[in-house]
Amino acid sequence: MKMDDCIFCKIANGEIPSKTLYEDQDFRVILDLGPAARGHALILPKEHAANLYELPEETVGAAFILAKRMAARMSEKLGCDGFNLMQNNGETAGQTVFHFHIHLIPRYLGDGQRIGWIPGKPSGEELEEVRRQIVG
Ligand code: AMP
Ligand code: ZN
Question: Residue 96 CA: which ligand 1 atom is closest?
């Protein structure tokens, strides 16, 4: 299903033009308009789902297989030195467009880009507490 007010629904389904790298029945891959690096692209399912939890499992699987193929092709064509995949869910996690997407971010030696986090230093007890919380 398509959502009327969703910009990525419109882009994925071709109602709004985009710099398309790949398209099939279920997905469109486009260049990001605010790239973290040269070639930064987004995998958009044509079906609307706000985030990972809403996306059907078979589409999640297909999206990650496509991510692998795109990353391989883009690495070869762009000659990048590394690759980040990113996928944000929820405003707190940095999601700004609420239609599931996977970021494909080519990385270049010395590109000065920062994609990461400040590592914490949990004690063994704290790790055990969170482990129990998740598996319990
Ligand atoms: P996120 O913060 O994970 O929701 O990522 C949204 C991404 O969509 C950002 O990297 C934006 O630069 C990108 N973006 C927003 N609008 C457009 C658009 N119309 N075409 C291409 N990329 C877009
Ligand atoms: Zn949508």
Answer: 4
Q: Which two tokens stand for residue 37?
A: 């690096």
Give the number of the ligand closest to the Cα of residue 48.
Answer: 2
Q: How far apart are CA 16 and CA 121, in angstroms?
A: 46
Residue pLDDT, tens place only, 98-114: 999 999 999 999 999 99
Q: State the distance from the centre of ligand 2 to the C-alpha of 1, rounded, in angstroms.
A: 8
Which ligand is closest to the CA of 34, given by its number? 1
C-beta neighbour count of 102 within 10 angstroms: 23
* Ligand 1 midpoint to CA 136 (Å): 36
45-58 residues labelled b (16+ CB within 10 A) or e (exposed):
bbbbbbbeeebeee
Tell me, yes or no, if the pTM score tops 0.85: yes
CA distances from 130 to 122, 123, 125, 134 (A): 10, 11, 9, 6
